[in-house]
Amino acid sequence: MRMPTMMPGEQVRADLTSSPRVMVFPVIELVATTGLLWMAIGFLDSPASPFPDQLRNLFVVAWMLAVLLRFVVPLVRARRRRFIVTNRRVIARQAQLRGRVDSIPFADIHSVRRRKGGLSVAILGQPAPLFYPEVPKSRRVEEMINRSLPPRLYR
């Protein structure tokens, strides 16, 4: 799903995506997997190896699948996660490949709280708040949104 376009007069105050730190474990896993599988492939390539060449090709395919599933997919998901605060609304895109995009006007937001490294956005009329995990600089974003909310008597 595409990100909504900005309305006339709308200004972006914060445009955040996942930090590079979320890729530390996938990079370590990629290095370990590559090392182990290519050592096995090197053994299968040796002239003294009693195994057929098709087994080597199977290991190369297994390595490619491991790289795709354990590194490329998490990288794409991490880069797709986006959290934008404008002067009128909050726009949030989930990390999935076809993640939904939430566009929440400030008038519909009751409050915003930080929780477990993410933001919990309470929306008027909704029984439970929306939770956005791993929002970078969540303390500053929480303060920014709460300052932008319209004043209410019952808050």
TrEMBL record:
Assigned keywords, A-Z: Membrane, Transmembrane, Transmembrane helix
Name recorded for this polypeptide: PH domain-containing protein
Transmembrane feature ranges: 21-43, 55-73
Keyword Transmembrane included in the entry's annotation: yes
Source species, domain of life: Bacteria
Origin species: Corynebacterium tapiri
